[in-house]
Automatic annotation (TrEMBL):
InterPro entries: Pyridox_Oxase-rel, Split_barrel_FMN-bd. SUPFAM superfamilies: FMN-binding split barrel. The lineage of its organism: Bacteria, Pseudomonadati, Campylobacterota, Epsilonproteobacteria, Campylobacterales. This is Pyridoxamine 5'-phosphate oxidase family protein. It comes from the Bacteria. Pfam families: Pyridox_ox_2.
Amino acid sequence: MRRDEFIFEDKIYIESFLNSIEFGVLAIPDKDCAYAVPISFCFHQNELYFHGAKSGRKYQLLKNEPRVSFNASKPYSYIPSSFLNHTMIPTQFFFSVYIEGKFEVITENQKKKQMLEFLVKKYENQNFILKEGQENGVFTGIIKAQTLSAKAKFGQNLDDEKIKILIKDLKNRGNELDFQTIKWIEKLRV
C-alpha cells in the first residue's frame, strides 16, 4: 500500500468486518480482462468461503485459474470541498480489505455442509441448520488467503487542527454515517 498511514492491521477487527459486510467482489483472471463478480461469503481461519452454481462464467474460470483476488469495502462519510472552510479536496472515507489467494473447490459433502452452515449463519443468524442434501446442488469453494491487507482512510494524513474542524463539519451535517465516521477518526488518532 502506498500510504502507510492508512494501513490497518487489527486482525480481529478485520475478521469481524469481513463477517459483517454483505458482499465482496471476487476478481478472476480471464484472457484479456479480469472478471470481477460480487459474491456473498464468510471468512473463517484465514479462508474465504463462498458458493455458486455449477455452471457459468465464474465456475468455468475458477476451474481453469485458481489465482484470484477479493475486495470488500464499506464507505463512510463523503467529505465535500465545502468542509475545512472550503479548503478540503473532496474525498471518500472508507474501510476496505484486499485478499489475494488460491481457490479450491470443496467436493467432500461434510466439509461443503459445514461451509454452507457458516454462510447461512452469517446472513440468517436465526436459521443456520441446513436440510440433508442441500449442499449437493451447488459448488462450494475456499479462497486460502496468501496476502491480506486492510485500509482505513479517515483523515490520518490531516493535522490535529484540521481534524477538529473536520469533526465539527461532520457533526454539523449530522447524519448517522457522519457519527460513525467520527468514531473511526477518533479511534485512529490515538
